[in-house]
Hints:
By secondary structure, the protein is an alpha/beta fold. Among the domains are: 244 residues, no CATH class; 124 residues, Endonuclease I-creI, CATH 3.10.28; 111 residues, no CATH class; 54 residues, no CATH class. Strands 5, 6, 8, 9, 34, 35, 37, 39, 40, 42, 44 and 46 form a twelve-stranded mixed sheet that branches. Strands 4-3-7-10-36-38-41-43-45-47 form a ten-stranded mixed sheet. Helix 16 packs across helix 17. The protein starts with 12 loop residues before the first helix and ends in a 5-residue tail after the last helix.
Amino acid sequence: xxxxxxFEINKNxxxxxxxxxxEQYVFKAKRGLSKEIVExxxxxxxxxxxxxxxxxRALEHFNRKPMPAWADxxxxxxxxxxxxxxxxKPTEKQEKRWEDVPEEIKNxxxxxxxxxxxxxxxxxxxxxxxxxxxxxxxxxxxxxQGVIFLGMDDGLKKYPELVKKYFxxxxxAADNKFSALNSATWSGGSFIYVPKGVKxxxxxxxxxxxxxxxxxxxxxxxxxxxxxxxxHYIEGCLPAGEQVSTGQRWVNIESIRPKDTVLNSDGExxxxxxxxxxxxxxxxxxxxxxxxxxAFQLTPEHPVLAVPREEVRVPRKARKSWLGEVSTKxxxxxxxxxxxxGKLHRGDFLVFPISQIxxxxxxxxxxxxxxxxxxxxEGSTFVHRTLRMPVVTFSFGSTxxxxxxxxxxxxxxxxxxxxxxxxxxxxxxxxxxxxSKPLMDLCLEHCGKWAxxxxxxxxxxxxxPEKQAHLxxxxxLGDGSRYQRTHTMVRASTASKNxxxxxxxxxxxQGHYATISLRKGGPDTILGRKINRKDQxxxxxxxxxxxxxxxxxGNTFLVPVKEVQRAPYEGPVFNIELDHSPNAxxxxxxxxxxxxxxxxxxxxxxxxxxxxxxxxxxxxRYTTIQNWSKNVYNLVTKRAIAHENATVEWLDGNLxxxxxxxxxxxxxxxxxxxxxxxxxxxxxxxxxxxxxxKMIHAAPETTSTILSKSISKDxxxxxxxxxxxxxxxxxxxxxxxxxxxxxMDELSRSDTYPTMEIDAxxxxxxxxxxxxxxxxEQIFYLMSRGLKEQEATTMIVNGFFEAFTKELPLxxxxxLNRLVQLEMEGSVG
Length: 829
């Protein structure tokens, strides 16, 4: 069961879902835990008296029980139970049709792909938002066979006697402090009953999401597989081609990797902490500002830094199709905030940050920059075929004598050589050329070669604005034109898309917001000669005033939205998280936040209980891919009872959360019962994955297998904590335990705490533990076969996790491998 969703490919849930929706709910309990709160939860749910009494007894156990002394108290002591909201009801009722779910909640789970997953792969789906199940669906053929798959609350209402018979029998409220907490405050979760002999061939799945700040989630899951039955239960941005500013150029978001540098919403450089991709099916928005060349695409929930027009309008009524006028004073006084893209409208103001990076290079003199400006607009380089000498040439019109003379003077100043002037009377042109390898190298290093691919170097983009002004001046003298409307306008065109965007950023540093528009190329005729014209990117700006309603606010421009387009989309979407605040980057120049899970300064608590009853000859497989945000404490109690010839399998993956404490167990109470736990844990900076398994052999001829795999990197910590207990007379038991840990660096840590209690004589018990590092020999072997070091390390890690991934359904295994790949990026080198 993935405590969010197994399709996510990201470093952890926090990084992939750094958004939260505005809190909208029909009821929210007071903060803290008390008898009154527990009674209020029970009353809100219209529960029978026995459940209310069960909750109150559990509260007494919770108050009496101490924190587990053996746990990681450096993290556990940070939980403040009185600061948590224990119940939040987001909707009035549970829906069976996806279309009827409230829009805000539906947008959140649409992003997780629930309707898509249901259609493609799953027999049934439950979606829980905050404390309540908001959506439930079960395939009709399973309903006809008598399969019950409900939210836990509905299970209690519709099948009270069946729930009462099994609820709390596998995990009593007094089992531990956190099971007591769940028993007192539980809400939502899943109730599953599979009748005798029914085989559920495709998985049932649940999704859980915490949206509100300081919220706790305490779902309760109860699964009963009757005799001979089987069931598999799974817990379960920007599109490719969208471009992000790096400070020098715009690059496709899918090409960005950890440790790359991008420009943030303050106009400063930030390192990328993680890059993520996930599958998405839903609406895709195109946000078009007044500069069509800056239009960008993103999913509706992705936050965009903006000022809503309605908040800064003047009282006058809008005329015809015109938008209502805005007050410049109000606009400049209003602090922009992050708004979900789906809530943007025509006329709202986007934020275009101005780069604040300043790194001077004394080698780039004023003369060099002025000559580079002419080169950008009129220059080219080549090697003379006969003389084999490098040539830099500039082409001007015969009437541009001042430009010709300045170019010749600059060449002389920089190279010490006198430039040649060659007239072309037929074309009314003049070429200025010089043989100079140093000048060619300078031009190619800082401006590139061909007209369609010219772009400025990072060095030039970072220069002080007063030096950049010289390059802009000569570029516009060569490729620009001025004309008069109500005020002076400047127009420039280039065949290079990258150069157009760079010029826009340089002009912004001079205080001018320039628009970019595209003039499509194609067949054309000039003076009777047929040509194939290239696409041209046209920049417009006024040196006298800002265009339209554009306003300068501090180190940003506020730019109005011209249009919002919506279209269906299915495919990968991408997102990045930055190392430092602000965690917002620039999509084609405009500030957007790291998209998607609620990330708050305060922590959240997830404390679930899962009880499984496998009756004789039944088979239950329970898959968890836990990927909570790094500010979530994931403290879960999961246990099964396996009767005669029954099999229970736990597949347990842990990648997210600040602290995970989870030890799924199987009580083997019937002859020839079998239990298996295959778990993987990946712990990064600031994380502790404390996971393991418990196997209780209470009957003869029972077998158990525990396979635990863990990886620690960047100072993360993993722990295996396990128990194998064999009761007297439980003869002919077989149990195998294997713990493998892989450390990626010297800062990381792995611990193993195995416990064996064997009270029978005729048993076979095996335990093996290994701790290793990625070997230089392994890396060398793979690199000698053509892999890069990063690829070699990722391949080793994927192989290390193979025992887990091979047990997953194919789609989940592929996505988990990609998740691990992104986790590993930046871990070597």
